[in-house]
Amino acid sequence: MSLTAKDKETVKAFWAKVAPKADDIGQDALSRMLVVYPQTKTYFSHWKDLSPGSAPVKKHGATVMGGVADAVAKIDDLTAGLLNLSELHAFTLRVDPANFKILAHNILVVCAIKLPNDFTPEVHVAVDKFLAALARALAEKYR
Which residues, in sequence order, are CB contacts of 6 under 8 Å at separation 6+? Predict the structure, then answer.
């Protein structure tokens, strides 16, 4: 499922609306992931507080969305553009790549909640394809 030129245009236009709320969206998506998929907590066991809205969750949510912003900027070659992040998650953090899909799903859900008027069916399809491509790019070094 590759991104068409129209998908890329749609993602970039939607991201312009997401960007001012990116930290909140990241925090909410990460909070939701940790509650709905408690097995993901194992990667954050060094945090003192894993509860929704805690300081570490807020900080990492912002970090995640910074990575998504970087991916939007590198949308034409996600695999090469995200090589360093892929290596970090594969070799240093050793995150199961299935978790990228879980977090991508939660980002999609929170975007729909926070931006309901902008989250049209066309945006939904394009952003879902983009986040799937992002998850594949992050999993590249696992192959």
Answer: 126
pLDDT along the chain (143 residues), means of 10: 93 98 98 96 93 96 96 94 85 85 97 98 98 92 74
Phi, psi for 128 (deg, rounded to 5): -60, -45
What is the reported pTM?
Answer: 0.93
- How many other CB atoms are there within 10 angstroms of residue 64's CB atom? 21
Q: Which two structure tokens, joined as six digits, stand for 23? A: 């930290």
